[in-house]
Amino acid sequence: MLDTHRIRVFRSVMASGSIQAAADNLGFTPSAISQQISALQKETGLTLFEREGRGLSPTAAAHSLVKHTNELMGELSKLDAVVTDLREGRSGRLTIGYFASAGAEWMPTLARRLAQEMPNLVLELILNEVPRRGGSPFDLNIVVDVPGAQDPHGSRRVPLATDPYVALLPADHPLADASEITLAQLEGDTWISNDLPQAICSKILAASCEAAGFRPRFAVQAQDHYTAIAFVRAGVGITVIPGLAGHVPPSDPHIRVLPIAPPQPVRHIAAVVRDPGGNTAANRAVELLLDLLR
Fold first, then answer.
1. Which long-range contacts (CB under 8 A, 24 or more apart) does 45-50 make?
2. Which residues, including other chains, have CB under 8 Å from residue 286's CB and lie 6 or more apart?
3. What is the pLDDT of residue 281?
4. pLDDT confidence of residue 77
5. Mean pLDDT of 164-184
6. How far from the centroid of its chain's Cα atoms is residue 264's Cα?
7. Gyration radius of the chain's alpha carbons
8. Which of 29, 69, 109, 134 has its CA 20 to 30 A from that of 6?
9. N- to C-terminal Cα distance for the chain?
10. In angstroms, rounded to a whole number, what is the distance separating the alpha carbons of residues 171 and 252?
11. Average pLDDT over residues 11-22
């Protein structure tokens, strides 16, 4: 079995760029770092660094090894956290997955209320929009409902909210003062995307536009909510965005937020609870979310 301390030192050398830099970053002497690297090379039977001028250059084996230790170091960090929790008397940990707009609107209040009710609970909040190896690690996962989605075995799905999309228009747009708008009225506009093309929220919008008889032409691939709103504010074009992500201060003189008439894109948001029978903290988090959304 590989020595994990040597792995940490090796990763520091790779990230720092030299033995001297790694020594400075870790608080060791360069000699101690060199000894750990030599021991790791003997332990693995691999040549990890080669002389290049006055320094060392990582080999292909070193680049491959560092990639394969990413997951290991993540698991070791989790283990360190568990040990710390046990040592300090904290009895539970709750991991919540969330997407960006839910994070901004709901997670701060949820975290505060959970901390008030369960001061010994360790709360870990992780953005779930980036796929993770090994499936979902979350005790509670806030998701956009996808038809036919397969939840982890033994989990429970709880509907949380319906989130209608809204249209964001520059204040000087001809329809800026309308009380409501249809997607078809925006067909000829310059469209700004606010999510990745294959993301579920983009697919929901695309389906509604198809129902309205057209496909939008995205002249700006912003692919995130904040940048898309900034483009609208600058008068570049319009964007159609989930209401939860489309909050603009009423005092903003540059943007108008309009409801959309049918066929209106809508996303449905749910919470997936792992081990619902025995996960007291996750079940309480869902109750607090439902109370928050009333």
1. 48/10, 49/13
2. 140, 158, 160, 271, 273
3. 93
4. 67
5. 97
6. 26
7. 25
8. 134
9. 53
10. 9
11. 91
* Pairing of the two strands 121-127 and 92-98: parallel
Select from 1.10.10.10, 1.20.1260.10, 1.10.533.10, 2.170.270.10 the CATH code of 4-71: 1.10.10.10
* Residue reference for tokens 């021991």: 39
**Averaged over 1-5, what is the pLDDT?**
81
Q: What is the pLDDT of residue 90?
A: 47
Provide the pLDDT confidence category of residue 275 given band limits of 50, 70 and 90: confident
Question: Quick one: pLDDT at residue 54?
Answer: 78
- Residues near 163 by beta carbon (within 8 Å), at least 6 away in sequence: 242, 243, 244, 266, 267, 268, 269
Q: What CA–CA distances, in Å, run from 116 to 87, 120, 121, 235, 243?
A: 22, 10, 10, 44, 29
What would the mean pLDDT of 202-230 be, rounded to a whole number?
Answer: 95
Same fold, 92-160+269-293 and 161-267: yes
Q: What CATH number has the domain spanning 161-267?
A: 3.40.190.10
Identity of the residue numbered 68: H
Strand ranges (E), the chain:
49-52, 55-58, 92-98, 121-127, 140-144, 156-170, 191-193, 218-221, 239-242, 255-259, 266-273
Q: Which of 55-69, 198-212, 235-249, 253-267 has the lowest mean pLDDT?
A: 55-69
Q: Where are the domains of the chain?
A: 4-71, 92-160+269-293, 161-267
Distances (CA, A) of 15 to 50, 63, 94, 166: 16, 11, 31, 44
pLDDT top residue among 167 and 294:
167
- Superfamily of domain 92-160+269-293, CATH level 4: Periplasmic binding protein-like II (3.40.190.10)
Q: Summarize the confidence of residues 197-221 as an average pLDDT.
A: 95
Residue 195 is classified by DSSP as S
Phi-psi sector, 171: left (phi>0), alpha (psi -120 to 50), beta: alpha
